[in-house]
Amino acid sequence: MAGAVGRPRKNSPRRRGRTAREEILDAAAELFTTQGFATTSTHQIADAVGIRQASLYYHFPSKTEIFLTLLNSTIEPSTRLAAALGEAEDTDAPQRLWSLVAAETSLLLSTRWNVGRLYQLPVAASPEFSDYHAHREELFSIFRDTAASIVGAEDPRIDLPFYLALSAIEMRDNTGVIPAEVSATSLPDTAIMLADAALTVLGAPLPADRVEKTLTTLRSLEEA
After folding, report:
1. For range 123-151, the mean pLDDT
2. 85 and 33 share one domain
3. For every residue of the chain, which 3-state class applies, written as one string?
4. C-alpha angle with apex 148: 146 to 154, nearest 5 degrees?
5. Which of 48, 62, 181, 189 fits a 20 to 30 Å CA distance from 7?
6. Which residue numbers delimit the DNA-binding region (predicted)?
7. What are the respective helix, strand and coil percentages of the chain, to the nearest 5?
């Protein structure tokens, strides 16, 4: 039908996703992480999904908006967790920091494509993504301030926990296989290892129930 808006029928699904929007993000994540932002067109993304280019614009107004959505997906859950941990009066600084590192690492390991690589692309520094920069700086400050509450603001180690979490980007592949599925009952071994390392590098003791406390907080956020 001429002038139809939205997503046309497909013979069979080409991408993973419960909705057309999720399928677009999956296709874009693959293309952006394998060939870059500048060399990826909205036509290529639409073709990878099996929809018309016009239908893609029904879900996203631009390629930039798709990129921003993927960037934010790497940081928004951790920002929510940080807020929840900050409100928990019975959670001390070592547990908060451990949970932050474990959750951020788990997030970076839970996607088919290594979307953490996107922030390393030159285009990510563009003023167009100022909202993302602000959110990332906010999260970095939370990591840093939490570490500082353990060892002091003048200690040069306070930046390390954030970068230990991000090291998961370099520790995973980009083959379209999820390294660690999201689970309500367990955390990936890599997340536990890096979270432990974050406290060890600060000389802080490891909380005894750190895994279960983190999972409990994450479950509460999912149910909220």
Report:
1. 93
2. no
3. CCCCCCCCCCCCCCCCCCCHHHHHHHHHHHHHHHHCCCCCCHHHHHHHHCCCHHHHHHHCCCHHHHHHHHHHHCCHHHHHHHHHHHHCCCCCHHHHHHHHHHHHHHHHCCCCCCHHHHHHCHHHHCHHHHHHHHHHHHHHHHHHHHHHHHHCCCCHHHHHHHHHHHCHHHHCCCCCCCCCCCCCCCCCHHHHHHHHHHHHHHCCCCCCCHHHHHHHHHHHHHHC
4. 160
5. 181
6. 41-60
7. 65, 0, 35
Give me 69's structure tokens: 């959505």
Furthest C-alpha separation in the chain: 66
Contacts of 52 (CB under 8 A, 6+ apart): 8, 46
pLDDT digits over 165-198, tens only? 999 999 999 999 999 998 999 999 999 999 999 9
CA distance 107 to 74: 7
Please tell me whether residues 43 and 96 are part of one structural domain.
no
| CATH code (residue 92) | 1.10.357
Q: How far is CA 8 from the centre of its chain?
A: 30
Give the type of residue at 169: I
Q: Which pair of structure tokens corresponds to residue 6?
A: 């939205």
pLDDT at 15: 67
Q: Which structural domain, as residue segments, surrounds residue 96? A: 72-223
Other Cβ atoms within 10 Å of 156 Cβ, number: 7
Pair of tokens at residue 115: 């979307």
CATH of residue 55 = 1.10.10.60
Q: Residues 53, 82: one domain?
A: no
